[in-house]
Amino acid sequence: MKPSLKWFVLSISIIIPLIISFFLHFFGKNNYEVPIFHEESVGNYSFCSSKVEFPFYVKSDSIFKIGENFVLIDIRLDNENQNFINNELERLLNNNFILNVYSITSFRLDNDRKTLMLNKPELIKYVSCKFLYDINFSSLILIDKFGRIRGYYESNSEEEFERLSAELKILMSI
């Protein structure tokens, strides 16, 4: 290959990535948004003792406090995968997320978090009315400082914990 052709190929292979990089820098947008759930009315919650208003905000009660930090509600219907869930929650807390974690269960947990224990039918009704969520499996609910629900996650899934971690990073940077 001729030296002039080598220089031409080398220059093109350097210039094209630079052009793409500058284009993406000036014209590309990387906006990631975490949705706010229940801004509009969905479903029928007439079975709840108090009236459900929209946009929906979770209110503080004797179990957990809204307003200081993000709140993660750990809802456990059964005793499966306890070690996995506890390890993933500890990993989240060790990643410097400012997060208050509360548990709602139908059995006794071995941790030092605030825990509300209810039998399964009461737990399902409480979660349905308090968080507007039909629960069928152990779950996590992320609530922001304003009481808005920002996510529902299945707590038996590693992928869901990764999604929760990514969404927390996005929300903490806002």
What does this structure look like?
- The protein has 174 residues and is of the alpha/beta class.
- The protein folds into 2 domains: 1-30; 70-173, Glutaredoxin, CATH 3.40.30.
- The protein has 4 helices and 5 strands.
- A hairpin with a 5-residue loop joins strand 4 (139-143) and strand 5 (149-154).
- It starts with a helix and ends with a helix.
CATH class of the largest domain: Alpha Beta
Series of H and E elements: HEHEEHEEH
Number of strands: 5
Which spans have pLDDT < 50 for at least 5 consecutive residues?
none
CATH 2nd-level architecture of the largest domain: 3-Layer(aba) Sandwich
Q: Strand arrangement, largest sheet?
A: 3-2-1-4-5
As a whole number of angstroms, the C-alpha radius of gyration is 23 Å
N-C termini distance: 54 Å
Specify the overall morphology. Answer: elongated
Question: What is the count of distinct domains?
Answer: 2
Mean pLDDT equals 88
| CATH topology group of the largest domain | Glutaredoxin
Describe the biggest sheet? Answer: 5 strands, mixed
Number of helices: 4
Overall structural class, as computed from helix and strand content, comes to alpha/beta
CATH superfamily of the largest domain: Glutaredoxin
Q: Approximately how much helix is present in the residues?
A: 25-40%
Question: What fraction strand?
Answer: 15-25%
